[in-house]
């Protein structure tokens, strides 16, 4: 586990772009934190580094967006999902089991049972003393991403 403090949206964007430089195809990233924490902003900036052109918008209503960059980017948002059974319909398990791209899942903690065994977890928390500050915690869940986590910790300095 490691954490980074950002003091503005621009700093979170910068951090996300560094992460975007390191992520590789086949990675599942779960992004959690309150509404307005910065999850979508984070995905937008990773996607930018991955060469996605055009706007990356929150897939709140359609549950998933797909983008083409240097690799495919899947962006799930489970905020409005009420029933895990719907995940099957949107192909969630196919995309998360062996992804042909990079998969982001906002609000993954709503359905912990449905997540793959291994994934990278990013949790964004507001800091009480400063409305524009965030504490961003990175974890590797399972064995698969332990080395990636170490690399990210070394690479993401600012
Ligand atoms: P979420 O997807 O978590 O609901 P968004 O990414 O849509 O959140 O929105 C985050 C909002 O918080 C943006 O308007 C952004 O400008 C603002 N913000 C302010 N400070 C920060 C920060 N340090 N990191 C990320 N976002 C921040
Ligand atoms: Mg969002």
Structure description:
- This protein is an alpha/beta fold and 158 residues long.
- The chain has a single domain (2-155), classed as P-loop containing nucleotide triphosphate hydrolases (Rossmann fold), CATH 3.40.50.
- 29% of the residues lie in helices and 30% in strands.
- It has a 7-stranded mixed beta sheet with strand order 1-7-6-2-5-4-3.
- The longest helix has 14 residues, at 9-22.
- The two termini are 17 Å apart.
- The model has no long low-confidence stretch (mean pLDDT 96).
- The structure holds adenosine-5'-diphosphate and magnesium ion (MG).
- Adenosine-5'-diphosphate (ADP) binds next to helix 1, helix 2 and strand 7.
What is the secondary structure topology, with strand pairs?
Blueprint: E1 2-6, H1 9-22, E2 28-32, H2 39-49, E3 64-68, E4 72-77, H3 85-89, H4 92-97, E5 101-106, E6 119-127, E7 130-141, H5 146-155
Parallel strand pairs: 2-5, 2-6, 4-5
Antiparallel strand pairs: 1-7, 3-4, 6-7
